[in-house]
Predict the structure.
Amino acid sequence: MTAQRLISDYPHQVAGHCGSGALRDLMQWARLSYDDTPLDEGTVFGLAGELGFTYLRHPAMSPPIYLVGRGPDLTGAFTRRLGITATQHATDDPDEGWAWVRDELDHGYPVLCWADIAHLPYLRVRLSMSRHDIVITGYDDHTATATVVDNDRADPQPVPYDALARARHSTGFPAPTRHTTYRLRFPTHLPPLTDTAADACHAAATALRHPPPLPLSTGHPDHDHNQDHNQDRAADLVHGAGLDGVRVFAEDLRRWPDVFTPAQLDTVLAALAAFIDKAGTGGSLFRRLQADYLHYLAHRTGLPIAGQAADLYAQLTQLWHGLARIAAADISTTTRVTALADTARHLPELEQRGADLLDLLARELSP
């Protein structure tokens, strides 16, 4: 007997960030908001309190730089803060992982999962990114396809079972997907906006000022027999997180012509533009989403400090986007790097001011 399930009324819009977009759709499906209008992608991101910054440069990486503008646990932070029960399951057994999905769908729940974009046929990309959030809204044993909702596509996508299994069992960057599946149970009402927003703003400011240690691994697994090799690799590593990471990044830009060959520099500049604007960041390394969230708070609360914070993050949005445009410009690499360094020198002060305003806003919002 062929089994078939489909959540036909699932709402969806294209989004700039997979996690924020998926959670926004799920909130609309659950009919949860602070007014008659569904929460937008930026407000979902902001309420997670996961704004951040990490910069890495190491010759063993490909590309040899890496930037990310948020923390690692947006789903967990958002669901905890909004009173949503989110049980995360992971397994290396594909049958067990698929059984979780079917069980949720059979009970009428859309299923939030991780998948590697390199194995999702509708994306047609080679780049591996294993922590991509998708929502599965149906399955059909007759066609052996699942229905997948993705932030990058306007319409639900049919994905063959075997391709979906590969995407959910990837060992690619940044971590194995392990068929990670979330069981989500939504409350009937959301906690008060002011309390939730205050906690989120404080969390974002804290993450920028006191980021958690980076899980760096620069050595060979056999550490005892390769101590000198490990020390050499560690010496090649440039890294920073939070506000200190912004400073490290801005200062390191001027060194790029000395540490990269001209061919490498072209690759690095292309990667920089992608990391800022194209790699599922919502635009401008998540600063655009943060600005949208703060504009929402300014509108809902009428607090002048919320408007000031929104304007500051709008300024950061333009600055980060400007860096991406310079990096992708059709001019010499030397000219691009010089322009990047001149522009980036404003970042540390503005990011520091942003963190300060988030803390001030958190105090204003707190009861």
